[in-house]
Q: What sequence folds into this?
């Protein structure tokens, strides 16, 4: 019979060795998962470099590849390779404190008043005439049309004003202004819900998808909106799904870094935008943030392939969380062409709100009315300058007061 006391030390040594190996395996698995969970390499502005994984996977039927996430493996898998970011060529951006949201449109009203003075002052001058005949009404209608309010709303406004003038008879300048203000406010429609859906629900972040054609300022709008949300004490993650425009990801990451907001991006040119969007939403869920905002590449509304790709981005995001807001960014200076863009985008991704940029640079503020009438979608935000805090919630009454200032 074998003496147990002789082999007992061997058994103890083997047991210790097994525990050490097991601990090492657990540590390795945790380390690998930790890398997938966004604690890997970041650039000098602390922005996330999304993991790059080889191979193509259909993001319509499976989790995205390229920069997307992989299913949790049954067995420990090799950690993904990541490109090294040379921090010496990335300038660190100091963190800023965004201006309070309250009162932004009031503070910026002077700019809007200057750009729309032709519309407001022209209408007031016409309606204050000693004699208002059909020629005057024709001029009022022409003024409204030149402001891009649209044919149907312009005719409706003229008819309403004509009836009120007949009833009122003698008019003072104050009465004329009050009458015109009431009609314009009704035309802009203060009853529309202009609030942003940016609150967590069902344990998931609100997801905001930002779309539009080339050159309207989508990336800048995302950065400015991030400042608005940070000022409202929201936790935000940005997704740089514009993977085709040169330096778009870096531009967005810089906006985020200014207010301490992380950006999920790819360091691979031409990466699948749906994959980046998927990864950004995944990060938002895991980190329990309030809002995930996804920037997309600009695309012409008549390019079928690009519009289909935009629909794909939205569908891939919805595999993880509901898209709460789809904001269409429009350049207010484009006038009626912006209305054509809005129609096509609304058919592809179900627009929930409009952001009008460069509203301070045009006398065609009537596009607000035209878009809302045609689409039934409210203007929720307006850009009134190039400053970082020159994005404000749209207020119909403040807008009309600025026109008539």
A:
């Amino acid at each position: 019979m074998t003496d147990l006391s002789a082999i007992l030390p061997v058994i103890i040594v083997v047991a210790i060795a097994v525990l050490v190996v097991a601990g090492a395996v657990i540590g390795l698995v945790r380390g690998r998962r930790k890398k997938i969970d966004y604690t890997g390499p970041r650039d000098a502005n602390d922005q996330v470099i999304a993991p790059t994984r080889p191979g193509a996977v259909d993001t319509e039927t499976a989790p995205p590849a390229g920069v997307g996430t992989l299913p949790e493996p049954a067995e420990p898998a090799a950690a993904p390779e990541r490109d090294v970011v040379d921090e010496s060529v990335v300038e660190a951006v100091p963190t800023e404190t965004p201006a309070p949201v309250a009162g932004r449109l009031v503070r910026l009203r002077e700019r809007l008043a200057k750009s729309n003075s032709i519309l407001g002052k022209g209408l007031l001058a016409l309606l204050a005439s000693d004699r208002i005949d059909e020629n005057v009404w024709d001029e009022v209608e022409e003024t409204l049309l030149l402001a891009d309010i649209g044919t149907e709303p312009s005719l409706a406004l003229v008819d309403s004003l004509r009836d009120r003038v007949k009833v009122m008879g003698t008019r003072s300048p104050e009465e004329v202004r009050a009458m015109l203000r009431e009609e314009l406010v009704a035309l802009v429609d203060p009853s529309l819900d202009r609030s942003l859906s940016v609150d967590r629900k069902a344990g998931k972040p609100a997801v905001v998808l930002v779309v539009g054609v080339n050159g309207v300022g989508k990336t800048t709008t995302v950065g400015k909106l991030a400042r608005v949300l940070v000022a409202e004490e929201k936790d935000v993650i940005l997704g740089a799904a514009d993977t085709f425009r040169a330096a778009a990801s870096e531009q967005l990451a810089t906006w985020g870094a200014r207010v301490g907001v992380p950006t999920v991006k790819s360091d691979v040119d031409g990466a699948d935008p749906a994959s980046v969007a998927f990864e950004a939403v995944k990060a938002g869920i895991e980190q329990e943030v309030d809002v995930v905002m996804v920037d997309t590449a600009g695309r012409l509304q008549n390019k079928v392939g690009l519009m289909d790709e935009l629909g794909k981005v939205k569908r891939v995001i919805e595999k993880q969380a509901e898209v709460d807001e789809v904001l269409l960014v429009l350049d207010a200076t484009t006038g009626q062409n912006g209305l054509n863009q809005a129609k096509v985008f609304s058919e592809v991704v179900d627009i929930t709100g409009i952001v009008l940029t460069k509203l301070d640079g045009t006398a065609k503020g009537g596009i607000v009315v035209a878009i809302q009438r045609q689409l039934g979608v409210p203007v929720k935000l307006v850009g009134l300058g190039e400053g970082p805090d020159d994005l404000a919630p749209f207020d119909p009454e403040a807008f009309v007061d600025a026109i008539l200032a």
